[in-house]
UniProtKB/TrEMBL annotation:
InterPro entries: AAA_16, P-loop_NTPase, Sig_transdc_resp-reg_C-effctor, Tscrpt_reg_LuxR_C, WH-like_DNA-bd_sf. This is LuxR family transcriptional regulator. Keywords: DNA-binding, Transcription, Transcription regulation. Residues 774-839 form the HTH luxR-type domain. It comes from Saccharomonospora viridis. GO terms for molecular function: DNA binding. Transmembrane segments: none annotated. GO terms for biological process: regulation of DNA-templated transcription.
Length: 840
């Protein structure tokens, strides 16, 4: 009796024994039992008769007896006599030469053939008959009576265990070098569990150049595993499929339920697979085995199994994410499933959002939505809006209507109110903004303190008057969030103080991507920046972006890449700012930006103006922006930057229109925000370009006489005023401008003033007023020309300058042509080496 697990080499051992017996002159009668033929009476005996063809007389006699047995019930008295005659025939034959009766997988033998084996087993004592049987270890199909018979008399029991690492190494050495065999043997031992069949087929794949790795088996190995699994009764493929679909780590009773077998049978079969080396601790040793099983299923079969697995796991109390994964693989919700699956999918989506897996959350919710009804549908839409908000705000629009309806009936509260308002502000939907604020005013309790604080800042960021809104909790409770919102909100209304800086730091420490309105965090960063702590602002901005990237919150990542570009621009690096703002635009589709598209556009306008890239400025001026943007704070950034782009391109009247619109917006809001757009000073510069010096002076004076003017605004005013002054006074005013701006952290404004001061010093003497710079003076160069000239003078090629300044090679060549002409030189070799660094 040879026993062993699946693929342990039992069949091969029987074959080799039979070959040796034939060589020794024995007659071998062989058969292989299969599960599907257990109901075929005498099926194994027929195979034995067919193998007796070398003895025609014997084959004929056996065939007649077997045919007669097959027509009778096993308990019929004549059946026993016929089987006795059949045994006698075999025993008589053994008197002439030895007889070997070899039966593979005897556990699948039909009842008539089993009766024959029992009789033969009792009668072969002292005969020349060898009964050679193989059986799967842990088989639950073999008759206990047959086991008992086998143990009553002397018998040889051979158990085939798994191959050891040394044996695997020896087998490998026959096909690859010793070093390779020594390297592969430990891995293959772990992957195969010592299963002979699997090791042999892996060697075949290795020789064919399709070796297994940590994740996949070669085609021969995968095919041999599947073939072996399907040789036995349907319960083992069913259990294996259940294990593959459920994945690792599930109890045997879960497997039993999915395979629709008893827990006892499932335990026995999992134990058998463990003995075979394919399974360890209830999990597949190699993921390639699981993959092969799953790939053997049709799409319909696999989907159906996942649907049943979801229900089994749900009934057994598994967590929502595990159940939802199977529902997703099932692909749809049946009517019966929908009763419990919608809530499971929603909970799983919320768990996925908490784990920053936005894509999974959206897949769960979109599967649930068609089957959701009533309150469930509102909940699914609510979470869908939150999920889409993280990666593409425009895509959430189709899910907003149920939230609108819920808001009007008082079913929406807290953060969901802020999200609904945020979407309306982001897309410029002023009617919805007014309606949400009205409902908040009528029912202040819909907002908790933090939501009220966020709502306040979001509205201020977008230029919405919040005065009529009573945010109950925020008004009635002295709360840190309320205090922080009030302090930060000063930035968008009047001068801010140190309380705003402290509030900014607290907000940045407490905010999380996707869970806080980005406008609140952006306000905190801008407060730090304009308070002169640009380094801290850049540090926090970098952390926010890293968290957004790690959390896959693309909306935050895009928005704060623009904030970083803005901070980089203030530091005096327009080339990097242009690159950052451009990459931010690529993260979201244009419609996904809503009214905030003006923010990256504003940074790009300023960067390109500084770089002197008029070609790209003209392209940017054609970028479509929503009309609603011009009623927001973002619109101020945009108009201020676009106005200066017009001014750089010689369109002073267009610039004046943009600057005047900035002023009108602020007057309408009852606010003055020179830190965002110093529109009076902008208008002064435009009037200077038109030669209207008196009007320009009046505008500067008006700005300087306003109450509460800050150092940054005063510093800019000093620079503009210098343009209207005589040479000696100009130098003094520019020095004052430098002194004021040095503490503000605005490297861009500082560089502009420094260049103006250098020009003024170059044209003034102790004896008289300033002279116009003559030919050959560096002061005649524009800012963009001077940047290009500086890099060319230090040995950079045109292509390198193009990459550093983020402008085209053609623009570099145009700038250099003008530089050569103005300085009266023939080429870069004659450029002066004393060009002042511009902070590139």
């Amino acid at each position: 009796m040879v026993t062993g697990g699946l693929g342990s080499g039992k069949t091969e051992l029987l074959r080799q024994c039979a070959d040796r017996a034939v060589e020794a002159g024995a007659l071998v009668l062989s058969a292989s039992a299969v599960w599907s033929e257990q109901s075929l009476a005498g099926g194994v005996l027929e195979q034995l008769a067919q193998s007796a063809r070398p003895q025609p007389e014997l084959a004929h006699r056996m065939g007649e007896l077997i045919a007669s047995c097959a027509t009778l019930r096993p308990d019929h008295p004549r059946s026993a006599r016929l089987l006795h005659q059949l045994c006698t025939t075999v025993l008589e034959l053994s008197q002439r030469h030895p007889v070997v009766v070899s039966i593979d997988d005897v556990q699948f033998a039909d009842s008539v053939s089993r009766q024959f084996l029992l009789q033969l087993r009792r009668r072969i004592f002292l005969s020349r008959v060898l009964l050679l049987l193989s059986e799967w270890e842990h088989s639950h199909s073999l008759s206990l009576r047959q086991h008992a018979e086998g143990n009553e008399r002397q018998a040889c029991h051979i158990r085939l265990g798994p191959l050891g690492e040394a044996q695997i190494k020896a087998m490998l050495t026959e096909h690859v070098g010793r070093a390779t065999a020594a390297k592969l043997a430990p891995l293959w031992s772990r992957w195969s569990g010592g299963n002979r069949m699997l090791v042999r087929s892996m060697i075949d794949d290795l020789v064919a150049g399709e070796a297994a790795d940590e994740w996949r088996l070669g085609p021969t190995a995968a095919g041999s595993v599947l073939a072996a699994l399907h040789r036995w009764e349907p319960s083992i493929p069913a259990v294996v499929r259940a294990m593959a679909v459920l994945g690792d780590g599930h109890p045997v009773d879960f497997v039993a339920r999915l395979a629709e077998v008893s827990t006892e049978v499932a335990q026995q079969l999992v134990g058998f697979l463990d003995t075979s080396g394919l399974v360890l601790g209830g999990s597949f040793r190699h993921p390639g085995v699981r993959a092969a099983v799953l790939e053997s299923l049709s799409t319909t079969e696999r989907a159906a199994l996942h649907g049943r697995a979801a229900e089994v796991l749900y009934r057994c109390g598994e967590d929502a994410t595990t159940v939802a994964t199977h529902l997703l693989a099932h692909g749809r919700l049946d009517d019966e499933q929908a009763r419990w699956a919608v809530d499971v999918l929603r909970v799983a989506a919320e768990q996925a959002l908490a784990a920053d897996d936005v894509d999974a959350a959206i897949r769960y919710l979109e599967l649930a939505l068609p089957a959701a009804e009533g309150p469930q549908r509102l909940e699914v839409n609510r979470v869908l809006v939150r999920a889409w908000w993280r990666i593409n705000p425009a895509a959430s629009a189709v899910h907003l209507e149920p939230l609108h309806a819920a808001m009007s009936t008082g079913e929406l509260a807290g953060r969901d109110v802020v999200i609904l308002l945020w979407h309306a502000l982001w897309t410029g939907d002023h009617d919805t903004v007014a309606e949400v604020l009205r409902l908040c005013r009528e029912n202040p309790d819909v907002l908790d303190v933090q939501s009220a604080a966020e709502l306040r800042i979001v509205c201020q960021f977008h230029g919405v008057d919040l005065e009529p809104v009573e945010v109950g909790a925020a008004q009635s409770v002295v709360d840190p969030w309320a205090e922080a919102a009030h302090a930060l909100g000063q930035f968008w209304t009047t001068r801010f103080d140190r309380r705003a800086v402290a509030a900014a730091e607290h907000v940045l420490k407490s905010s999380r991507p996707g869970e806080t309105a980005p406008e609140m965090v952006a306000t905190a960063l801008l407060v730090l920046t304009f308070a002169g702590d640009a380094g801290s602002a850049e540090h926090w901005c970098g952390r926010v972006i890293d968290e957004a990237v790690n959390g896959r919150v693309r909306t935050w990542q895009a928005f704060f890449e623009v904030v970083r570009a803005h901070l980089t621009l203030r530091r005096g690096d327009p080339a990097t700012a242009f690159r950052l703002a451009s990459s931010a635009l690529d993260l979201l589709p244009t419609q996904g930006w809503g009214v905030s598209i003006g923010y990256p556009a504003a940074v790009l306008f300023t960067a390109l103006t500084e770089l002197g890239d008029r070609h790209r400025l003209e392209e940017l001026l054609r970028l479509p922006v929503p009309k609603a943007m011009f009623d927001t704070i973002v619109g101020l950034f945009y108009l201020h930057a676009r106005g200066h782009a017009h001014l750089a391109c010689g369109r002073a009247l267009a610039a004046i229109s943009d600057f005047q619109q900035c002023g009108l917006l602020m007057e309408r809001w009852g606010a003055d925000l020179p830190l965002v757009a110093p529109w009076r000073l902008d208008l002064a510069e435009a009037n200077i370009a038109l030669g209207r010096r008196d009007a320009a002076r009046d505008l500067v004076t008006e700005q300087l006489t306003r109450p509460g003017i800050g150092r940054w605004t005063r510093g800019i005013a000093m620079r503009v005023l210098a343009e209207l002054s005589e040479a000696d006074e100009r130098v003094s005013l520019l020095r004052k401008s430098l002194e004021l701006l040095k503490s503000c952290g605005d490297g861009l404004a500082l560089a502009r003033t420094q260049r103006r001061l250098d020009e003024a010093r170059g044209g003034a003497t102790d004896d008289g007023p300033a002279r116009r710079p003559g030919r050959g003076s560096v002061a005649v160069l524009s800012d963009s020309e001077r940047r290009v000239a500086e890099l060319a003078a230090t040995g950079h090629t045109n292509r390198e300058i193009s990459a550093l300044l983020y402008i085209t090679v053609s623009t570099v060549e145009q700038h250099l042509t003008r530089v050569y002409r103005k300085l009266g030189v023939k080429g870069r070799a004659e450029l002066p080496r004393d060009l002042a660094p511009l902070g590139i």
